[in-house]
Specification:
It is built from 20 helices and no strands. The chain is an all-alpha fold and 432 residues long. Helix 4 packs antiparallel against helix 6. 49% of the residues are buried.
Length: 432
Amino acid sequence: MGEDETRAAADGAPAAPAFEPLLYVHAVVVSALTAVVLMLWLALFYAVETALWENGFVESNRWMFPVICLPFSLAVGLLVKHLKAPTAMTESLTDSIAGDTSRIEWRRFPVSALQALVSLFSGAAVGPEGGLGLLASQVAAWYGHVLRIPAGRRPRLVYAGVASAYNGLLQNPLFTGVLGVELSETKAAGRTSLPANLIGGAVGYAVFLALGMPSLAGILGLEPVKYIRALDVLLILVTALLGIALAAVTAVLFKVATRVLGRFRDDVGRALAAGVVFSLAGAAAPILMFSGESQVQTVVEHPARYGAALLLVMALAKLALLAVAFRGGFLGGAIFPSIFALVCVALALDLVLPAADPTVLVAGMMVGFMVVMFRTPFMVILLTAFMLEASIDLLALIVLAVAAVLIVSPLLQRAAAKRTAAAEAPGGRDAG
């Protein structure tokens, strides 16, 4: 630790990063290493998933869903019970970006990598992004240990590695930089690690691009917004409010899943119970399973095939399955499954509002839902604009919708808190 860092620590203030060119050389190296390792992990995942699920026999025989799903669900439970494998209940995207790096157990990389894979192979409604941050942090922690880098400097290497993973996956060199800045408001380590974060993000982006990782920009396949109408302003504000409401519904679904699956005291039984749910859902409607990354494109291409009512049911079912996966002990991410649900709701609205622009509806839903769920508005602006390939006009609408959500959501939270307090007070609805 340098003199400036020591003085700042004594004052109780976050330390200003010293000029350490060698450390940033390490950041470049660890970012490239992390990108290559995780690109190989993703390649393995996509290859096995394709072989398991995307073949004619499985696709034409839905009874095969439980045949494949249940053994992998069993593996999830066994890994959690006997090897203490990580789950989505304990790992999050924000923790991997600006969490406590002093407790990273790099020796558990094989268990973490296997747990993320079997969770995804089961067909659970989780995305691959969930395990990437954890795996990236473990690779970077291993690098710091092997090269005997002082403990005080290792967090910057971890953040560089995590930024490399996420920016590479999204094929956006700025994603974790924006997220890191927002998280640094409450995480002091994020302030000193921003240069390494930016370096890692740029390196990861370059490596994934060089190795042929397809970009997620425009992945939803929606038509770009060419110009803005007065109606679009109203619609994006209304759908942003609907996104807030859907986030509240999601919170309820997570509470229900926690209560139901919490009855299983054994990790194996809990994972198998979740696997049974996935098996039934997969046999009935395979489009609801997996991350939703490719399934959402099918919905966008033919929304009228489903109809507005069924699209709303699909959205709620997807979020319920996400809750079951998280509370069942599976390791994965919530971003892609959530986007599937948000697109379903937006397209249902589009079917009953022919004058609406579906891209504007999706943008509003994403903003309202994700600002509430992740509490990182600038990251949400960047992610929404990136995935919708937003024009400058649509970007202006997205920014307006985020502002509206930031104004309205605290008011709604206070109103909900008052209702809860009134219900729990003596003589309230829950009294007696």
